[in-house]
Each structure stands twice: as C-alpha cells, then as structure tokens.
Amino acid sequence: MKQQFFKNTLAALALASLALITISGASASKGDATNHTSATELKWVESGFGPTVSPVNGDASKGDHVTYVKFTAGMTTPLHTHTHDYVGIVLSGVSMHWEPGKPETKKQLSAGAHWFMPGNVAHVSECLPGAECVMAIIQKANIDFIPVNP
Question: Is the separation of the CB atoms in 139 and 22 below 8 Å?
C-alpha cells in the first residue's frame, strides 16, 4: 500500500514538475502570454531519426527545449549517443533506455518514471510492445542523434 502511494506521488510530482517547467518556459518566451495546448492540438512531426516529436517549449534544433517524443509500440532505436545531457519523463507506455553491458540500466519505465542520460553515453531506447510510448525530453541544449557502430 505504501509502495503504491509512493509510486503515485512520484508520478504526480514528475508530471507537476514538467508542467511547471513548461509553463515557466512558455511565459518566458512569449512575454506575459500564457500558453495552453490540449493533447488533441499537439502537432507531431517526423524527427528524422525514427520517432515523431511535438515541441512543447523552445526549439530542439537550436538550444534549450522541452519536447514530446512518441515511439510506436515495439520501436527500438539503434545504439546511439547524444552530444548533450537530457532528462526524460515517461508520459505513457513502457520504455527502456539502456546501456549495452550494463544490465542495471535495462529497467522498464512506465508513466511517471524518469531517467537521466549523460551526453556521449551509448544507449538504446525502446518502447515495449503493447502501446505507444510518449515521453517528455528536457534538455538545456539542442538535440542530436549520433548512431554508434557496435
């Protein structure tokens, strides 16, 4: 019972933190105007490296950003790195973001879970079968995707 309460509380805090970051960033970039976008209004575009993405705040190609990333159910990326650190929060589905040779990183992450990926760390990202995965990526730099030859 306590464990479920902790999980629910952690999920609520993660989502509230994301909302606060998004709202703070949106008002900073748009003056005093607020920004409200429902899930049906999200605009999804191809990322160029597999998943689709929907910008929340900032420009992922230029610098600081919060971006939703959507993987289809069962999608797995090739081994890759990113130049810069990022934090990810799972909004729906079950995903894993693991480093080959480090079984402790191969953890299933469901809604409310989060992970930190340092820059230049080779990893694989995947959405487990059964449902698509939507994740929020928070990064203080532009995003990139650098395939790694195993």
Answer: no
Q: Which of 27, 34, 60 is nearest to 45 (CA)?
A: 60
In the chain, where the domains are located: 2-147
Q: Is 24:30 a contact under the CB 8 Å cutoff?
A: no
CATH architecture for the domain at 2-147:
Sandwich (2.60)
CA atoms of 99 and 11, how far apart (whole Å): 24
Count CB-CB contacts under 10 A for residue 134: 23
Q: How far apart are CA 96 and CA 125, in angstroms?
A: 6
pLDDT digits (tens, 9 = 90+) for 59-91: 999 999 999 999 999 999 999 999 999 999 999
Sign of CA dihedral 120, 78, 51, 16: negative
Dist CA 21 CA 90 (whole Å):
15
Nearby residues of 11 by Cβ (< 8 Å), 6 or more positions away: 111, 112, 113
d(CA 52, CA 73): 13
